[in-house]
């Protein structure tokens, strides 16, 4: 379980996050939704300290940190080892094949053997029907294929939690569907995922929980079904703006 208490992020001209209190359950998918510029990505990236919050408490299982204090490098690394991260940009190693993209981190960071890393990578590619991509380089892949490989690369590190920041926003609808199917399969396997997404159909179908961020504050935190059936005027306004 991940929990943030009174988490705030202040910039000189803006309060990006305002006293956020949210729990992210393990073995569930939480979708973070909200209007552009509301603080969704800031919240997500605060969990693995890519964004450094101004104050608050971060609790990951038995680990607890006061985010208002200066954190040591070892503390930051201790937090980050819990997470795999997938961004909007695929950011694969362009000089490595798909197979080697999946093995580089486990070998160099987790210090597992090359044989073990290759076995895990091949299992992941087979699991998602992507074996034929193993010997290709990123430039030989479509955008959707690159993003699917990026997700597998994060999974190859065997993180406790998978963080995804708008993983399909740069893709056209057909390629987006390919990536969302992978995430749906992971959700069905009870992978612990936290996803910032603009795709309300995906959030409704896949997420166990919705966190709605509006102007840096939590506007809703609860079950997916209750969010989409909410009578709250702000939530209705947001959902209405997502359809035409």
Automatic annotation (TrEMBL):
InterPro entries noted in UniProt: AAA+_ATPase (IPR003593), ABC_ATPase_HisP-typ (IPR030679), ABC_transporter-like_ATP-bd (IPR003439), ABC_transporter-like_CS (IPR017871), MetN_ABC_transporter-like (IPR050086), P-loop_NTPase (IPR027417)
Residues annotated as domain ABC transporter: 2-240
Main location as per UniProt: membrane
Subcellular compartments: Cell membrane
UniProt KW keywords: Amino-acid transport, ATP-binding, Cell membrane, Membrane, Nucleotide-binding, Transport
SMART domains to which the protein is assigned, alphabetical: AAA
GO molecular function per UniProt: ABC-type amino acid transporter activity; ATP binding; ATP hydrolysis activity
Membrane topology designation: Peripheral membrane protein
Pfam families in the record: ABC_tran
Gene Ontology annotations for the cellular component aspect, listed alphabetically: plasma membrane
Gene3D superfamilies to which the protein is assigned, alphabetical: P-loop containing nucleotide triphosphate hydrolases
Family per similarity comment: Belongs to the ABC transporter superfamily.
Protein name: Amino acid ABC transporter ATP-binding protein
């Amino acid at each position: 379980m991940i929990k943030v208490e009174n988490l705030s992020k202040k910039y000189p001209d803006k309060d990006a996050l305002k006293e956020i209190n949210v729990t992210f359950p393990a073995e569930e998918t939480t979708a973070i939704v909200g209007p552009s510029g509301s603080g969704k990505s800031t919240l997500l990236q605060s969990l693995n300290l890519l964004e450094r919050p101004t104050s608050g408490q971060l609790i990951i299982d038995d680990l607890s940190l006061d985010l208002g204090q200066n954190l040591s490098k070892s503390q930051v690394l201790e937090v980050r080892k819990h997470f795999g991260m997938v961004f909007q940009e695929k950011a694969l190693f362009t000089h490595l094949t798909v197979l080697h993209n999946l093995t580089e981190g486990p070998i160099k960071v987790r210090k597992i053997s090359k044989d073990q890393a290759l076995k895990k990578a091949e299992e992941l590619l087979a699991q998602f029907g992507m074996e034929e991509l193993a010997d290709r380089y990123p430039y030989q892949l479509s955008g959707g294929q690159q993003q699917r490989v990026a997700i597998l690369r994060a999974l190859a590190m065997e993180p406790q939690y998978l963080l995804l920041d708008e993983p399909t926003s740069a893709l056209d609808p057909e390629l987006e569907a390919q990536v969302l199917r992978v995430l749906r399969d992971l959700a069905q396997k009870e992978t612990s995922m936290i996803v910032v997404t603009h795709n309300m159909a995906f959030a409704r179908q896949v997420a166990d929980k919705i966190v709605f961020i509006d102007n840096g504050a939590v506007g809703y935190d609860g079950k997916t079904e209750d969010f989409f059936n909410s009578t709250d005027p702000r939530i209705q306004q947001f959902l209405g703006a997502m359809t035409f």
